[in-house]
């Protein structure tokens, strides 16, 4: 199998590349703006990487859409601060650029696995969220944070229609808060622009207060990346075409916690690292309003819990890694990198 992965150096793309190389004989043709997460994978004989931009390198993309069996367009802006600060950039990349790629998949008969999002469910009042029956509920137009969810939902609807009317082979996946090594960088503070686990960990390591938006009452279901990739690889294999024309939530409903509970658990896990336990002991939780944190155009999602019946019944998939272990593995990877960077700056081991 030949896979075209746009955004191959991203969190999901880089982890997927490692799993594909380790577990299959497939070839990956990947594009991204950089290759830091891929590391030495760029030199693997079955990984064909090019540095490029989805909005610029259009001829390369079209050629490889035609050449490959499956396309995974993983390129997207997916951080809430960006939805409020630059909504048009979110729309242009997440919808317009991806629509062009999907149209090419329909034209050349290439199967597409499109990364939708758990955010398409919006403020659906009845979790757990089901792919077939749950309502997709958004706020008023002036709440620009919904432009991401709207762009993804519209892509879902267009892809579904192309499947019915233009013969597009597709599967839609909806990841629910995947976490693991390489999620974001801790090098610089990115308040509101990085995912919550890395944002909180950065605060802990820099001895800064953890900001809990609206007290951290919002609930999320966190999924360890290896569990998520087990499901995604089964979708890629698509035995008997069983994933064609389907939508799959990929999440762990057992790992449903409030953001405050997440922060408290991360502090507790950090205490397992002897040299970092003092940082955990000094950790401070601070409540801030959503408007102060994100701006007036933000609106939050109270709960986000997946119904994974479809993945269980169609793929026999079940997430295995609990939240504490997922956080321990994620934090351990970041702490190792953090220590290495600190030692590089101060080889003598000073403060």
UniProtKB/TrEMBL annotation:
Family annotation (SUPFAM superfamilies): NAD(P)-binding Rossmann-fold domains (SSF51735)
Residue ranges of every copy of the NAD-dependent epimerase/dehydratase domain listed in the record: 4-251
Classification via InterPro entries: Epimerase_deHydtase, Lipid_A_modif_metabolic_enz, NAD(P)-bd_dom_sf
Record-linked Pfam families: Epimerase
PANTHER family, alphabetized: BIFUNCTIONAL POLYMYXIN RESISTANCE PROTEIN ARNA (PTHR43245), UDP-D-APIOSE_UDP-D-XYLOSE SYNTHASE 2 (PTHR43245:SF13)
Protein name, per record: Bifunctional UDP-4-keto-pentose/UDP-xylose synthase
Lineage, uppermost ranks: Bacteria, Deltaproteobacteria, Dissulfurirhabdaceae, Dissulfurirhabdus
